[in-house]
Design brief:
Layout lengths: L25 E6 L10 H12 L2 E9 L4 H6 L1 H4 L1 E5 L2 E5 L11
Length: about 100
């Protein structure tokens, strides 16, 4: 996604969210696109929170969005789809798992 954005005004950094590389502290950190959903263990989620804590000022705000299990089940029928963008074919299929990790 970063490579696609040719008109970026702000600096762009690609990094592991459980090990944020910033020495500067921020007033606001916003993690988008349900990215915390990919932290599929309690340990990874805690590492993310600790990493963000090291990059945010004392009265700063950490905000993130998540897709909750019930919401995902409600809209699951819309997630399985095929498409074509810029000549590239894509498909997405939701896989069922019996051993989902929970916090």
């Amino acid at each position: 996604m970063l490579k696609k954005n040719k008109n970026a005004v702000l600096a762009q950094v690609c990094c592991d969210m459980v090990r944020l590389p910033f020495k500067k502290r921020f007033d606001f950190i916003f993690s988008t696109f349900d990215s915390v959903n990919y932290l599929n263990t309690k340990e990874k989620f805690i590492s993310y929170l600790n990493s963000a804590e090291g990059c945010i000022v004392d009265d700063g705000i950490l905000a993130f969005d998540v897709s909750l299990e019930n919401n995902s089940k409600k809209f699951e029928k819309y997630l399985n789809r095929r498409g074509k963008v810029d000549g590239l074919l894509s498909s997405r299929e939701v896989l069922q798992s019996n051993n989902a990790n929970t916090l």
